[in-house]
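WARN retry 2 of 3 for item q-0093 after timeout on previous attempt; input resubmitted unchanged.
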Amino acid sequence: MRPDALPRSPFALLALFAVLAAGLLGGCATDRGLPPAPATVASDVDYTYIIGAGDSVNIVVWRNPELSMSVPVRPDGKISAPLVEELPAQGKTPVELARDVEKVLSKYVRDPIVTVLVSGFVGPYSEQIRVVGEAAKPQFMAYKVKMTLLDVMIQSGGLTDFADGNRATILRTAEGNKQYAVRIKDLLKRGDVSANVEMRPGDILIIPQSFF
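OK item q-0093 returned
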């Protein structure tokens, strides 16, 4: 547009700027070069809970109640229990940990049978869901099977007043840090259930601040 073609009225100028801003915002919201996040996780993804630091594990030794107790998984990922000292627990399934405890106890108890029950459910850092940016309560949370974007946002308290929810992204560590576009504003403010997607262990949800 030539300078002499610009509108001279202040109201006309404001209208022009509004149109330009709307076009800029529309381009930012749709032209990010990122694929939308898949609505569902592939059916061949099999998830088994892995013990993490901060979990509590209840060790039950059959017919040996004196050896049964609940212990925390320390920050170094290890546990200590009667006759079991400095045993690594982080990164193992409850069944794997039970077999390790049986191996240690077999030095003192004949044919021990051990069951490990997990409570607390923090999980290893590599499988936690992280929410950063313009969420009301940025945080990390334990992954749960069939967990969705809506579940994550409810736990995070929704968006702040400064969030650009439709420009949010998921960084999927399980797929080599591939990024996906998600539409949180459409999901929360407009009730668009098509914007709800399933999460995967280790996902990082990034919510940017609005430019305007």
